[in-house]
Design brief:
By secondary structure, this protein is mainly alpha-helical. About 75% of the residues lie in helices and about 5% in strands. It has one domain. Strands 1-2 form a two-stranded antiparallel sheet.
Length: about 280
């Protein structure tokens, strides 16, 4: 395979990754890293560097549309970005100190846990919940559009959500992903935000998280422009296509796609990490 063919294949795979990332709130990096490592034999640190650039593109491509449609809770996103950014800097530092096989195994375990949580159904709660004092003080409660008009919701468990976002940021920097899977689950389950609001707010946040990590990768020499450019362009196009589909799909379908994809990638990354193939 020559350089042109390699670039074309990477670009096509990145379009698919960006589409899935925008549709589910995962961020394209959760597919990009396994694709580059497992299919093309790219060092996981260079794959992570390219993935972080693509994650920024995913957020930039879809966040504006989500905000315009009224799904994203901007106040929650800006508040929680302080936690994810601190974690991202710590995680990016750690990745330069750990073996690639260990990073791959951690990557797989994180995805496997996320798949398990997504397969389990969250207990339904009343649409109108008791107000959380901290959420009220920070004015985090909001509403989002539905077929029956705007539907209000109350944000719960703000400290738990902040702590989980610190972990999500660390995973983002360590693994080269937007950690959208972890963010969506934290927003959906811990903070009791509607799933579509969780996915769109996750997309809003991942760009800032990835940018913080990307600076460390660039300083360490793990950003290859020849690899990052087709990945970034492909993910950007895919994310724009994914935005259009999100508003037409049900939460059940989103959860199904979310679960199946990350379960498959988790098994592959753990297997290759344990066997030392990376």
């Amino acid at each position: 395979m020559n350089v042109l063919e390699f670039t074309a294949v990477i670009f096509a795979g990145s379009v698919a990754a960006g589409f899935l990332g925008a549709l589910t709130g995962l961020g394209g990096g959760v597919v990009i890293v396994p694709m580059l490592v497992l299919l093309f034999g790219v060092d996981i640190r260079y794959a992570a560097g390219a993935s972080l650039v693509s994650v920024i593109a995913t957020s930039s491509g879809s966040a504006a549309a989500y905000v315009r449609k009224g799904y994203t809770n901007v106040r929650i996103g800006m508040f929680l970005e302080t936690a994810t950014t601190m974690g991202a800097l710590a995680g990016a530092f750690l990745t330069t100190r750990l073996r690639p096989s260990l990073v791959s195994t951690v990557f797989g375990m994180v995805l496997l846990h996320s798949a398990y949580l997504s397969f389990t159904t969250r207990h339904q709660v009343e649409k109108i919940q008791a107000p959380d004092p901290l959420a009220t003080r920070l004015r985090l409660d909001g509403s989002y559009p539905t077929s029956e008009g705007a539907e209000s919701y109350r944000v719960q468990n703000v400290p738990a959500g902040f702590a989980l976002m610190l972990v999500a940021g660390t995973l983002s920097g360590l693994l080269g992903i937007g950690s959208g899977a972890f963010k969506v689950l934290a927003l959906d389950r811990a903070m009791r935000i509607p799933f579509k609001v969780a996915t769109t707010t996750s997309n809003f946040m991942i760009g800032v998280t990835a940018a913080a990590s990307a600076g460390v990768y660039l300083n360490r020499g793990y950003l290859d422009p020849g690899l990052a450019m087709p990945v970034m362009l492909g993910v950007l196009i895919g994310s724009l296509l994914g935005v259009r589909q999100l508003f037409k799909r049900t939460t059940t379908l989103l959860r199904a796609v979310f679960s199946v994809v990350i379960l498959f990638l988790a098994v592959e990354m753990i297997y290759n990490g344990i066997t030392g193939r990376l």
